[in-house]
Amino acid sequence: MTERIDLAKTQPAALTAMLSVENYLSQTALPAKLKELIKIRASMINQCAYCIEMHTAEALEAGIEQQKLFAISAWRESPLFDNKERAVLALTDDMTLIADSGVSDASYQACLDKLGEELLAEAMMQVIMINAWNRFALATQMKH
């Protein structure tokens, strides 16, 4: 396998810009548990082992139960997720797989109803950012 470039070293300004968005996200009102569910679910869809490992550890620190982490891949069938978490996970799925069929009106409206405009915007930015990080990690084959 060919060694990949280190984007952070090759384009430090790009990494700084991404970290600036991360700084914004760290200060948002969206609950930490929802942020971690978004990060893990998108990373599972994108098959980003680097981010799955990182964010499952952070989810445990945030107080998410192991049983819930084990069930994220089957969240639609699992009774462990409340309606707010389900709305956020549906939005995460739609946004991560946006090329398939876009963001459905049902997912968008459910999230808006459960979160309101401000938290919905924050959730959307969290989905956007973890998808960017997944691509960063996968394209460069980042390792821990």
From TrEMBL:
GO terms for molecular function: peroxiredoxin activity. InterPro entries: AhpD-like, AhpD_core, CMD-like. It comes from the Bacteria. SUPFAM superfamilies: AhpD-like (SSF69118). Residues 13-93 form the Carboxymuconolactone decarboxylase-like domain. PANTHER family: 4-CARBOXYMUCONOLACTONE DECARBOXYLASE FAMILY PROTEIN (AFU_ORTHOLOGUE AFUA_6G11590) (PTHR34846), CYTOPLASMIC PROTEIN (PTHR34846:SF10). NCBIfam families: ahpD_dom. This is Carboxymuconolactone decarboxylase family protein. It comes from Shewanella canadensis.
